[in-house]
């Protein structure tokens, strides 16, 4: 599941809306909506995110959050290390190999270091 998919499912569940009803309202199939929630579809288009924002009638911060989550929710990420150092290529490959074994705490720590929230020593 992607961050966008998790948020979409939470919003739908909080409001007591079925996938079938929501899918019909925004003009997609229930299978597409399920795949979007489970991360089996790529990043949703801007137009699709706008339909979802309109469907839930969210504004301001919550709408911005959905757009940000959509941008960070491509389940098939490619990291191009061409022209970077060998260490960058090693890091990208190590992450690809080991990401499924990392705990949530490990991932949170890595996200904090990479995003600059926490300075590494």
SSE topology:
Layout: H1 3-14, H2 19-26, H3 30-38, H4 46-56, H5 60-71, H6 86-98, H7 104-115
Helix pairs in contact: 1-5, 2-3, 4-5
What does this structure look like?
This protein has two domains: 3-71, Orthogonal Bundle (434 Repressor (Amino-terminal Domain)), CATH 1.10.260.40; 78-121, no CATH class. The protein is built from seven helices and no strands. With 121 residues, it is mainly alpha-helical. Helix 2 (19-26) packs across helix 3.
Proportion of helical residues? 55-70%
Mean pLDDT: 92
Q: Which residue ranges are poorly predicted, with pLDDT under 50 across at least 5 consecutive positions?
A: none
CATH superfamily of the largest domain: lambda repressor-like DNA-binding domains
The termini sit apart by 32 Å
Enter the CATH topology name of the largest domain: 434 Repressor (Amino-terminal Domain)
**Helix-strand makeup class:** mainly alpha
Task: Give a quick summary of the entry.
It is built from 7 helices and no strands. It has helices spanning about 5-15, 20-25, 30-40, 45-55, 60-70, 85-100, 105-115.
Q: Notable features of this structure?
A:
64% helix; mainly alpha; 2 domains
């Amino acid at each position: 599941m992607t961050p966008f998919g998790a948020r979409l499912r939470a919003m739908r569940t909080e409001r007591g809306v079925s996938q079938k009803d929501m899918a019909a309202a925004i003009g997609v199939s229930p299978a597409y909506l399920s795949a979007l929630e489970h991360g089996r579809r790529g990043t949703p288009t801007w137009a699709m995110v706008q339909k979802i924002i309109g469907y839930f009638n969210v504004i301001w911060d919550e709408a911005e959050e959905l757009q940000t989550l959509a941008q960070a929710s491509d389940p098939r990420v490619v990291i191009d290390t061409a022209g970077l150092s060998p260490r960058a290529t090693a890091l990208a490959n190590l992450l690809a190999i080991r990401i499924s074994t990392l705990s949530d705490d490990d991932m949170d720590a890595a996200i904090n270091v990479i995003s600059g929230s926490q300075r590494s020593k």
